[in-house]
Amino acid sequence: MSENWVKVYTTGDAFAAEVLKQGLVEEDIPAVIINKQLSAYNIGEINVLVNKVDFDKAIEYIVKNEIE
User: Where does the DUF2007 domain start and stop, copy by copy (predicted)?
Assistant: First the structure.
């Protein structure tokens, strides 16, 4: 993965990560999900990443939408 991508959100909930990713994309903020969970047990983390240049916009979106 390129060093231009930075993590903006971590969760254990795959659905929440996907909803956030879709919301960011709808705001023209490209986003990707990196799922580090052990699939059989859903143990571990799921990270949502955006490009460094979009970091501030992504954080603003997360705060505005009260995503925890």
Answer: 5-59
Q: Which residues contact 4 (CB under 8 A, 6 or more apart)?
A: 51, 52, 53
Residue 45 has pLDDT above 70, yes or no: yes
Instruction: List 35's β-bridge partners, or say none.
Output: 46
pLDDT greater than 70 at residue 1: no
* Structural contact between residues 46 and 14, judged by C-beta atoms closer than 8 angstroms: yes
Q: By the 8 A CB rule, do 9 and 47 touch? A: yes
Q: Is there a contact between 8 and 55 (Cβ–Cβ < 8 Å)?
A: yes
Mean pLDDT to the nearest integer, 31-51: 89
